[in-house]
Amino acid sequence: MSNPAVQSALAAAQFRLQFPQSLATYDDYATAQKTVDFLSDEGFPVQNCMIVGTDLKQMERITGRLTTGRVALNGALSGLWLGLFVGLLFSFFGTGNVLAEIVSTMLLGLLFGVIWSLVGFSMQRGQRDFSSVTQVIATKYEVLVEHKVAAQARETLAKLPGALPNPFA
After folding, report:
1. How far apart, in Å, do the first and last CA atoms of the chain sit?
2. N or C, which end of the chain has less CB nearby within 10 Å?
3. What is the pLDDT of residues 72-115, one digit of tens each?
């Protein structure tokens, strides 16, 4: 059995550079990725690089209005799936009529899903009667490199077609 604290420390160590220096900053991830790919193609030790998304923003896209009917339908479908899953599990270990077990658990799941979703919706009291999807995105992407190879990275990056002159040369 592994220790979660040790796993967390190991994961954090993967995302650390010693004395990182900024190589370049871009408005999109694809350009930052292209920079690291170019460095790799040129033989640069890219294990000394990291792409960091900065200036994080939370975006929420409203996908529709929630009505009692829509909430009940979504709850019914969710409950139906849960009932099907439970019914299939019961059918593996039961000795009775398999079809009856599956259908009955689906109906119970449907009923449970409708009730559960309507109760939750009514408890919100109109505070949030819309559905949405949320995502956190970065607005800038910075390529960082280890300090010991920063000069080599800048020299290599200067060879990139369309690159600006190296101000550190």
Report:
1. 52
2. N
3. 999 999 999 999 999 999 888 877 788 888 999 999 999 999 99
